[in-house]
Design brief:
Length: 330
Protein backbone atom coordinates (compact mmCIF):
# COMPACT_ATOMS: atom_id res chain seq x y z
CA UNK A 1 0.00 0.00 0.00
CA UNK A 2 1.05 3.60 -0.50
CA UNK A 3 1.86 4.35 3.11
CA UNK A 4 4.02 1.25 3.41
CA UNK A 5 6.12 1.97 0.32
CA UNK A 6 6.44 5.74 0.35
CA UNK A 7 7.54 8.21 2.99
CA UNK A 8 5.07 11.06 3.31
CA UNK A 9 6.48 14.17 4.96
CA UNK A 10 4.24 16.92 6.26
CA UNK A 11 6.17 19.83 4.78
CA UNK A 12 4.76 23.25 3.90
CA UNK A 13 3.43 23.47 0.35
CA UNK A 14 5.67 25.56 -1.93
CA UNK A 15 4.53 28.31 -4.23
CA UNK A 16 5.67 29.03 -7.78
CA UNK A 17 9.16 30.47 -7.87
CA UNK A 18 9.82 33.93 -9.33
CA UNK A 19 11.35 32.53 -12.54
CA UNK A 20 8.38 30.22 -13.09
CA UNK A 21 5.98 33.10 -12.51
CA UNK A 22 7.91 35.19 -15.03
CA UNK A 23 7.56 32.46 -17.66
CA UNK A 24 3.81 32.41 -17.05
CA UNK A 25 3.60 36.18 -17.46
CA UNK A 26 5.59 36.33 -20.68
CA UNK A 27 4.36 33.21 -22.50
CA UNK A 28 1.53 33.73 -24.96
CA UNK A 29 -1.45 31.39 -24.72
CA UNK A 30 -1.40 28.85 -27.59
CA UNK A 31 -4.45 28.45 -29.78
CA UNK A 32 -6.14 25.17 -30.61
CA UNK A 33 -4.08 23.22 -33.09
CA UNK A 34 -0.86 25.12 -32.31
CA UNK A 35 0.86 22.07 -30.81
CA UNK A 36 4.63 22.18 -30.66
CA UNK A 37 4.64 18.54 -31.81
CA UNK A 38 3.21 15.22 -30.69
CA UNK A 39 5.05 13.41 -27.91
CA UNK A 40 4.75 10.10 -26.08
CA UNK A 41 5.55 10.45 -22.36
CA UNK A 42 6.98 7.27 -20.86
CA UNK A 43 8.70 8.28 -17.62
CA UNK A 44 5.91 10.33 -16.01
CA UNK A 45 2.45 9.26 -14.82
CA UNK A 46 -0.62 11.37 -15.54
CA UNK A 47 -2.75 11.44 -12.38
CA UNK A 48 -6.25 12.92 -12.23
CA UNK A 49 -7.82 13.67 -8.85
CA UNK A 50 -11.57 13.07 -8.55
CA UNK A 51 -14.05 15.50 -7.03
CA UNK A 52 -17.51 14.93 -8.55
CA UNK A 53 -18.64 18.08 -10.38
CA UNK A 54 -15.43 19.94 -9.50
CA UNK A 55 -13.84 17.78 -12.18
CA UNK A 56 -15.39 20.15 -14.72
CA UNK A 57 -12.17 22.08 -14.09
CA UNK A 58 -9.76 19.18 -14.51
CA UNK A 59 -11.61 17.82 -17.54
CA UNK A 60 -10.25 20.81 -19.45
CA UNK A 61 -6.76 19.37 -19.07
CA UNK A 62 -7.88 16.50 -21.30
CA UNK A 63 -8.62 18.95 -24.10
CA UNK A 64 -5.38 20.87 -23.50
CA UNK A 65 -3.19 17.76 -23.59
CA UNK A 66 -4.88 16.37 -26.68
CA UNK A 67 -4.57 19.62 -28.62
CA UNK A 68 -0.86 19.59 -27.76
CA UNK A 69 -0.47 15.98 -28.86
CA UNK A 70 0.89 14.92 -25.47
CA UNK A 71 0.26 11.22 -24.91
CA UNK A 72 1.11 9.47 -21.64
CA UNK A 73 1.95 5.78 -21.46
CA UNK A 74 -0.02 5.56 -18.21
CA UNK A 75 -3.03 7.55 -16.96
CA UNK A 76 -4.65 7.19 -13.52
CA UNK A 77 -7.94 8.33 -12.04
CA UNK A 78 -10.66 7.55 -9.56
CA UNK A 79 -14.19 8.67 -8.84
CA UNK A 80 -15.38 11.24 -11.42
CA UNK A 81 -11.94 11.41 -13.00
CA UNK A 82 -12.54 7.92 -14.39
CA UNK A 83 -14.35 9.92 -17.08
CA UNK A 84 -11.12 11.83 -17.80
CA UNK A 85 -9.29 8.56 -18.28
CA UNK A 86 -11.90 7.52 -20.85
CA UNK A 87 -12.07 10.79 -22.79
CA UNK A 88 -8.30 11.26 -22.80
CA UNK A 89 -7.46 7.77 -24.02
CA UNK A 90 -10.27 7.79 -26.59
CA UNK A 91 -9.00 11.22 -27.71
CA UNK A 92 -12.45 12.79 -27.46
CA UNK A 93 -12.09 16.39 -26.20
CA UNK A 94 -15.69 17.21 -27.11
CA UNK A 95 -17.00 14.48 -24.82
CA UNK A 96 -14.58 15.65 -22.12
CA UNK A 97 -16.22 19.07 -22.32
CA UNK A 98 -19.84 17.96 -22.76
CA UNK A 99 -19.75 15.39 -19.98
CA UNK A 100 -19.36 18.11 -17.36
CA UNK A 101 -20.93 21.16 -19.05
CA UNK A 102 -23.93 19.71 -20.92
CA UNK A 103 -24.74 16.25 -19.56
CA UNK A 104 -25.51 17.45 -15.98
CA UNK A 105 -28.50 19.36 -17.39
CA UNK A 106 -30.23 16.10 -18.28
CA UNK A 107 -33.03 15.44 -15.74
CA UNK A 108 -31.99 11.79 -15.70
CA UNK A 109 -28.48 12.77 -14.57
CA UNK A 110 -29.61 12.95 -10.97
CA UNK A 111 -31.53 14.81 -8.30
CA UNK A 112 -34.00 14.11 -5.53
CA UNK A 113 -36.29 11.87 -7.59
CA UNK A 114 -33.57 9.42 -8.64
CA UNK A 115 -32.27 9.49 -5.06
CA UNK A 116 -35.68 8.56 -3.64
CA UNK A 117 -35.98 5.76 -6.21
CA UNK A 118 -32.71 4.32 -4.92
CA UNK A 119 -30.67 5.30 -7.98
CA UNK A 120 -28.63 7.92 -6.15
CA UNK A 121 -28.42 11.70 -6.11
CA UNK A 122 -26.16 11.15 -9.10
CA UNK A 123 -27.88 8.48 -11.18
CA UNK A 124 -24.80 6.32 -11.59
CA UNK A 125 -26.43 3.53 -13.60
CA UNK A 126 -27.46 6.09 -16.20
CA UNK A 127 -24.39 8.33 -16.05
CA UNK A 128 -22.10 5.32 -16.46
CA UNK A 129 -24.47 3.39 -18.68
CA UNK A 130 -24.75 2.49 -22.38
CA UNK A 131 -27.79 4.73 -22.92
CA UNK A 132 -26.40 8.01 -21.57
CA UNK A 133 -27.19 10.83 -23.97
CA UNK A 134 -28.22 14.48 -24.24
CA UNK A 135 -30.44 15.65 -27.09
CA UNK A 136 -29.68 12.47 -29.05
CA UNK A 137 -25.95 12.97 -28.52
CA UNK A 138 -24.27 9.99 -26.88
CA UNK A 139 -22.39 10.55 -23.62
CA UNK A 140 -20.86 7.09 -23.78
CA UNK A 141 -17.08 6.82 -24.31
CA UNK A 142 -15.75 4.87 -27.27
CA UNK A 143 -14.50 1.62 -25.77
CA UNK A 144 -12.78 0.47 -28.95
CA UNK A 145 -10.80 3.73 -29.02
CA UNK A 146 -9.87 3.23 -25.36
CA UNK A 147 -8.90 -0.40 -25.95
CA UNK A 148 -6.59 0.45 -28.84
CA UNK A 149 -5.36 3.74 -27.40
CA UNK A 150 -1.83 5.11 -27.21
CA UNK A 151 -1.64 4.43 -23.47
CA UNK A 152 -2.64 2.24 -20.55
CA UNK A 153 -4.71 3.19 -17.53
CA UNK A 154 -5.86 2.33 -14.05
CA UNK A 155 -8.96 3.46 -12.18
CA UNK A 156 -9.34 2.75 -8.48
CA UNK A 157 -12.16 1.42 -6.33
CA UNK A 158 -12.68 0.59 -2.66
CA UNK A 159 -13.81 -2.88 -1.59
CA UNK A 160 -16.50 -2.27 1.02
CA UNK A 161 -16.01 -5.60 2.78
CA UNK A 162 -12.24 -6.01 2.86
CA UNK A 163 -11.23 -2.35 2.86
CA UNK A 164 -8.82 -3.06 0.00
CA UNK A 165 -8.02 -0.42 -2.61
CA UNK A 166 -8.15 -2.00 -6.07
CA UNK A 167 -6.55 -0.49 -9.18
CA UNK A 168 -8.26 -1.86 -12.30
CA UNK A 169 -6.57 -1.78 -15.69
CA UNK A 170 -7.62 -2.49 -19.26
CA UNK A 171 -6.87 -6.18 -18.66
CA UNK A 172 -9.69 -6.32 -16.08
CA UNK A 173 -12.27 -5.17 -18.64
CA UNK A 174 -13.61 -7.08 -21.60
CA UNK A 175 -15.92 -4.64 -23.32
CA UNK A 176 -17.86 -1.39 -22.95
CA UNK A 177 -20.27 -2.69 -20.31
CA UNK A 178 -17.36 -3.96 -18.25
CA UNK A 179 -15.54 -0.63 -18.47
CA UNK A 180 -18.67 1.32 -17.50
CA UNK A 181 -19.27 -0.99 -14.53
CA UNK A 182 -15.74 -0.44 -13.22
CA UNK A 183 -15.99 3.32 -13.81
CA UNK A 184 -19.29 3.35 -11.91
CA UNK A 185 -17.72 1.39 -9.06
CA UNK A 186 -14.85 3.88 -8.89
CA UNK A 187 -17.36 6.73 -8.55
CA UNK A 188 -19.93 5.14 -6.20
CA UNK A 189 -20.05 7.71 -3.41
CA UNK A 190 -21.52 6.25 -0.20
CA UNK A 191 -25.03 7.54 0.56
CA UNK A 192 -25.02 9.70 -2.58
CA UNK A 193 -24.95 6.62 -4.86
CA UNK A 194 -25.64 2.92 -4.38
CA UNK A 195 -22.55 0.69 -4.29
CA UNK A 196 -21.55 -1.31 -7.36
CA UNK A 197 -21.18 -5.08 -7.45
CA UNK A 198 -18.37 -6.64 -9.47
CA UNK A 199 -18.26 -10.40 -9.23
CA UNK A 200 -19.06 -11.22 -5.61
CA UNK A 201 -17.59 -7.99 -4.21
CA UNK A 202 -19.21 -4.66 -3.40
CA UNK A 203 -17.30 -1.52 -4.33
CA UNK A 204 -17.47 2.13 -3.35
CA UNK A 205 -15.78 5.29 -4.58
CA UNK A 206 -12.02 4.92 -4.95
CA UNK A 207 -11.61 8.19 -3.04
CA UNK A 208 -12.10 6.19 0.16
CA UNK A 209 -9.02 4.13 -0.56
CA UNK A 210 -5.43 4.33 0.61
CA UNK A 211 -4.73 7.97 -0.24
CA UNK A 212 -8.18 9.42 0.45
CA UNK A 213 -8.88 10.48 -3.13
CA UNK A 214 -5.48 11.42 -4.57
CA UNK A 215 -4.76 8.35 -6.75
CA UNK A 216 -1.00 8.65 -6.49
CA UNK A 217 -0.60 5.19 -4.95
CA UNK A 218 -1.45 3.27 -8.13
CA UNK A 219 1.40 4.59 -10.33
CA UNK A 220 3.91 4.09 -7.52
CA UNK A 221 2.88 0.62 -6.40
CA UNK A 222 1.71 -0.89 -9.67
CA UNK A 223 4.11 0.58 -12.26
CA UNK A 224 6.91 2.03 -10.14
CA UNK A 225 6.67 5.64 -11.33
CA UNK A 226 8.57 8.37 -9.51
CA UNK A 227 7.54 11.34 -11.70
CA UNK A 228 4.02 12.70 -11.93
CA UNK A 229 1.80 15.27 -13.61
CA UNK A 230 -0.93 15.65 -11.00
CA UNK A 231 -4.17 17.37 -11.99
CA UNK A 232 -6.03 18.56 -8.89
CA UNK A 233 -9.55 19.83 -8.27
CA UNK A 234 -8.74 21.67 -5.05
CA UNK A 235 -6.66 24.80 -4.62
CA UNK A 236 -3.09 24.50 -3.41
CA UNK A 237 -4.02 25.77 0.06
CA UNK A 238 -6.91 23.33 0.62
CA UNK A 239 -6.94 21.07 3.68
CA UNK A 240 -9.64 18.45 4.16
CA UNK A 241 -11.46 18.48 7.49
CA UNK A 242 -12.85 15.49 9.35
CA UNK A 243 -16.49 14.73 8.66
CA UNK A 244 -18.94 16.43 10.99
CA UNK A 245 -21.28 13.42 10.83
CA UNK A 246 -19.20 10.91 12.77
CA UNK A 247 -22.20 9.53 14.62
CA UNK A 248 -24.12 8.98 11.37
CA UNK A 249 -21.22 7.27 9.60
CA UNK A 250 -20.79 4.84 12.49
CA UNK A 251 -24.48 3.91 12.33
CA UNK A 252 -25.01 3.98 8.56
CA UNK A 253 -22.71 1.15 7.46
CA UNK A 254 -22.86 -1.70 9.98
CA UNK A 255 -22.26 -4.22 7.17
CA UNK A 256 -19.22 -2.28 5.92
CA UNK A 257 -17.07 -1.42 8.96
CA UNK A 258 -13.98 -0.92 6.77
CA UNK A 259 -15.84 1.71 4.75
CA UNK A 260 -17.09 3.49 7.87
CA UNK A 261 -13.58 3.67 9.29
CA UNK A 262 -12.22 4.91 5.98
CA UNK A 263 -14.82 7.68 5.88
CA UNK A 264 -13.89 8.76 9.40
CA UNK A 265 -10.14 9.07 8.81
CA UNK A 266 -10.15 9.92 5.11
CA UNK A 267 -9.18 13.54 5.78
CA UNK A 268 -5.89 12.52 7.39
CA UNK A 269 -4.93 10.18 4.54
CA UNK A 270 -5.88 12.73 1.90
CA UNK A 271 -3.93 15.57 3.50
CA UNK A 272 -0.91 13.30 3.99
CA UNK A 273 -0.99 12.25 0.32
CA UNK A 274 -1.24 15.87 -0.80
CA UNK A 275 1.70 16.84 1.40
CA UNK A 276 3.73 14.06 -0.18
CA UNK A 277 2.82 15.24 -3.69
CA UNK A 278 3.84 18.81 -2.87
CA UNK A 279 7.12 17.49 -1.50
CA UNK A 280 7.71 15.74 -4.83
CA UNK A 281 7.07 19.06 -6.54
CA UNK A 282 9.75 20.65 -4.36
CA UNK A 283 12.14 17.86 -5.39
CA UNK A 284 11.37 18.39 -9.07
CA UNK A 285 9.57 15.06 -9.44
CA UNK A 286 6.01 16.37 -9.82
CA UNK A 287 4.19 19.09 -11.69
CA UNK A 288 0.99 20.10 -9.93
CA UNK A 289 -1.85 21.63 -11.89
CA UNK A 290 -4.28 23.07 -9.34
CA UNK A 291 -7.07 25.64 -9.69
CA UNK A 292 -6.32 29.17 -8.58
CA UNK A 293 -9.84 29.14 -7.15
CA UNK A 294 -12.65 26.60 -7.14
CA UNK A 295 -16.01 28.37 -7.44
CA UNK A 296 -18.23 25.27 -7.56
CA UNK A 297 -18.99 22.40 -5.19
CA UNK A 298 -19.03 18.69 -5.85
CA UNK A 299 -22.81 18.84 -6.30
CA UNK A 300 -23.10 21.83 -8.67
CA UNK A 301 -25.49 21.19 -11.58
CA UNK A 302 -25.91 24.73 -12.96
CA UNK A 303 -24.63 24.55 -16.52
CA UNK A 304 -23.40 28.14 -16.68
CA UNK A 305 -21.26 27.65 -13.57
CA UNK A 306 -19.90 24.35 -14.85
CA UNK A 307 -19.08 25.89 -18.24
CA UNK A 308 -17.30 28.83 -16.61
CA UNK A 309 -15.29 26.44 -14.46
CA UNK A 310 -14.33 24.37 -17.50
CA UNK A 311 -13.24 27.46 -19.44
CA UNK A 312 -11.19 28.64 -16.47
CA UNK A 313 -9.47 25.26 -16.37
CA UNK A 314 -8.80 25.34 -20.11
CA UNK A 315 -7.36 28.85 -19.99
CA UNK A 316 -5.10 27.93 -17.08
CA UNK A 317 -4.00 24.68 -18.74
CA UNK A 318 -3.04 26.51 -21.93
CA UNK A 319 -1.24 29.17 -19.93
CA UNK A 320 0.79 26.61 -18.01
CA UNK A 321 1.43 24.32 -20.98
CA UNK A 322 4.97 25.67 -21.64
CA UNK A 323 5.87 24.82 -18.05
CA UNK A 324 4.23 21.41 -18.32
CA UNK A 325 6.15 20.70 -21.52
CA UNK A 326 9.38 21.79 -19.86
CA UNK A 327 8.73 19.46 -16.92
CA UNK A 328 7.92 16.56 -19.26
CA UNK A 329 10.86 17.31 -21.52
CA UNK A 330 8.73 17.43 -24.67
Amino acid sequence: MFHSKSTLSLTPRPVLSDDVAQILRTTQTPTIGSSSGAAQVQDTALVFEGGAMRTAFSSAMVEALLEEGIHFDWTYGNSASAVHVATYLSQDPQLARDYFTVFPGDPLFGGIRPFLRGDGFFNARYIFGPDAQVEDKSMVPDWEAIRTSFGNFRISGFNGKSGETVHWSREDMHGLDDFLRHARASASLPIIMPPTKIGTDIYFDGAFGTTGGMPIDAPIEMEGFDRFLVVMTRTRSYRKSQTRFTWFVKKAFPQYPALAQSMLDRHARYNKARDWVFEQERLGKAYIFAPHRMPISNGTRKLNELAETYEAGLAQAREEMPLIRRFLGV
